[in-house]
Amino acid sequence: MSAGQAFHWFDPERTRLEARRILRPGGMVALVWNDRDETSPFLAAYEELLRTLPTYGVVHHRIGEDDRVSHWFAHPRVARFPNAQTLSWDGLRGRFLSSSYAPRAGAPELPAVEARLRALFVTHALDGAVDFRYVTRSFWGEP
After folding, report:
1. Predicted structure pTM score
2. Per residue in 46-102, pLDDT tens?
3. Among 68, 73, 75, which residue's Cα sits nearest to residue 11?
4. What is the CA radius of gyration of the chain?
5. What's the CATH architecture for 2-141?
6. Distances (CA, A) of 60 to 4, 90, 121, 138
7. CA angle 74, 13, 20 (to 5 degrees)
8. Between 89-97 and 110-124, two packed helices, what is the crossing angle to 10 degrees?
9. For the purposes of burial, counting CB atoms within 10 Å of the CB of 96, is it exposed (0-12), middle (13-18) or buried (19 or more)?
10. How far apart are CA 67 and CA 69, in angstroms?
11. How far is Cα 77 from Cα 106, in angstroms, rounded to an integer?
């Protein structure tokens, strides 16, 4: 059983029970998660922008070894990998708008947020693109 970038939507205990029900004995669950690499000046500024959004703190979208994921597994295994996307303005805008914390289409604050995002892009872009760097973490083990 696997899930990518979605565990924050799951009820952890109900999911554990369902995983145990459907897995064969010794079966494992793998969760894959991308965390933004905020050592990047662009992504540090992006994070600052996100923190101004009223919806950003509502969704618990970050998963780490120190919270419910590592406690969810009997004996968790963790691996980390660098990962990056090179995004044009359209790619960055689309990536932002597809996030659960982005203002919805038609929201009155959306034009101002998009203008701030565009300013970040203009400030940090090289050759018409920004690097959206991640640390991809994989957690796996028996639930």
Report:
1. 0.78
2. 999 999 998 786 555 555 554 567 677 888 888 999 999 999 999 999 999 998 889
3. 68
4. 17
5. 3-Layer(aba) Sandwich (3.40)
6. 15, 26, 25, 18
7. 60
8. 140
9. buried
10. 6
11. 42
Residues 130, 124: contact at Cβ < 8 Å? yes
The residue extents of the domains of the chain are: 2-141
pLDDT at 134 over 70: yes
**DSSP class per residue in 10-48:** S-HHHHHHHHHHHSPTT--EEEEEEEE-TTSHHHHHHHH
| Burial (CB count within 10 angstroms: exposed 0-12, middle 13-18, buried 19+), residue 108 | exposed
